[in-house]
Amino acid sequence: MHDHDDGPPAEAERDTAAPAAPPRHRDVTLIGVGVALAEATSVDEVFKAVGSLDSPEFPLDGMAIFDVTEKWLSLLGRYGYRTGHGRTVRMPISTDHPSTEVLRTGRAVYVPTVEEYRERFPTTWMLAARKGSLSWAFLPLVSTGRITGVWLVAFVDHVEFDSGMRATLATLAELISRALDRARTGEAELALSRALRSSMGRGASEYHGMTVASRYVPTGGGLVVGGDWYDVIDLPSDRLALVIGDVQGHDLHAASLMAQLRTAVHAYAAEGHGPDAVLSRTSRFLTSLDEDRFATCIYIEADPASGTLHMARAGHPDPVLRMPDGTCMIKHLRGGLPLGLMPEEDDYPVNVMELQAGEILMLCTDGLIETGGLDMQTGWIRVRDAMSPGPTGDLEGMADRLIHSVVGPVTEHGEERPTPRNEDDIALLLLRRDTGAQQPVRPVRRVLITIEQDQAEGLAEARTELRALLHDWGRPDLVDTAVLLASELLGNVLVHTDQAAVLIAAVSGEPGHRTLRVEVSDSGDELPHQRTPGELASSGRGLVLLDILSDQWSVRPESEGKTVWFELAEEPDGGPDSDADADAG
């Protein structure tokens, strides 16, 4: 800012310097200011950018920006003027003032001298005269075709406002309007994001047998809201619902839809609907809000006392199951289409599993998996590596490791650098079944899989989960044997009965001396019997293979149906049996 006591010398210096300043220099300076304004997201940043123009050709004395409401012009911010000690400055739009003339006419007002100011605006010119400025310009700030504000710029010297100066001021006003639009949008998004994150909460909560840890990380790049969310809802009879979802898009509209979906899910859960009905109703509700957007979601109804989970999935990534010893596997859930995609044909089958003591179920949105350009498979490996280490009891530490694996610094050439958060936002839920003295001792690892008659893909998913259960088994050939025998038993149920097949696989014992027990149950009445199939027979080999390859097997009649089971003992490489096999070879 200029000192008015040094006016004449400065003016003399300006007179001699002005002719030597080429127009190109002013254009280059203006381009730099334009770049700064293009990145500005607040009124202070706007003033700082324009203030850098202060020069003999642009003798800036002060600036103010007025916001427009229905009846008032309110001061949004000022530069080069006294602060007024926090007073709110506003004037009625009926006031005889250059700013209100801008509102009435939609055109800029230029006042080159104090005399002209006094003649044109006799009732308010003294407000400007007190400052000591000598020329003024008032320009409309236009957004979406309407005036949303007025920019006042005052000069310490006389300015003629020729065509070049007017063009410069008009360009600056346009850039300021865009910057203020970004600031308003950013503030709205920031407020919404903070409210949403506050309402979702953070940290661990205990529910008399289960503990939940949660995290939400917004996206970067100036967008701090998105469509990801999670919820933990208290239900009657000491049950709880866990919800995680992702609305398509990363804009304010996606965040608005997400907030409404959260409310809808709360309402349907409070009405007592099961997981399938909650998702069906929410899908139809989303369609009524916006036919062009869809959302993915998992809804779980949990009973902390028994560890039973009833789960429904709508196009969302499958959860991950972590066992007490750190073994992690993708828990495949039968599911339906994303919410809002085809609401008239919604079908969300309910999956039932029992979470064992010390086991952790991880639910997340795809931002945790795919951020950094990873596909689902490599992203899953990153998740597994972050979940496996550490004690089961440190649920908060596990949540932090998972988030840090995505948003933490990366090391390149021995140096750490921060990673940008300009991709998807992340929602994360961890659900742990707590241990206690009253809990029975469970196997170290256990998985339960149900395959319906119309779910052929369930066979492949069962093989994948069984291999994950045996990821560190001593001999890979025994893993292949276990997968083969389980596939035969499951296939027998699906081919020879009209019942669903239920597989329970459990690992017990110390590493190197463990035992795998696999049970396959169905509700059919007919007991299996061993046959002697020919070389080209396409069936009948299941029990024969059991007899040859398993250590033990049997058939157990149940009150409804039957269970066929087998056991395999771990034989690590280098053990006595493997040496004997080598000698026999």
From TrEMBL:
This is SpoIIE family protein phosphatase. Residues 1-16 have a biased composition (Basic and acidic residues). SMART domains: PP2C_SIG. It comes from the Bacteria. PANTHER family: STAGE II SPORULATION PROTEIN E, STAGE II SPORULATION PROTEIN E-RELATED. InterPro entries: Bact_Sigma-Reg (IPR052016), GAF (IPR003018), GAF-like_dom_sf (IPR029016), HATPase_C_sf (IPR036890), HATPase_dom (IPR003594), PPM-type-like_dom_sf (IPR036457), PPM-type_phosphatase-like_dom (IPR001932). It comes from Streptacidiphilus jeojiensis. The keyword Phosphoprotein does not apply. Residues 1-25 are annotated as: Disordered. Residues 210-433 form the PPM-type phosphatase domain. Keywords: Hydrolase. The keyword Hydrolase applies.
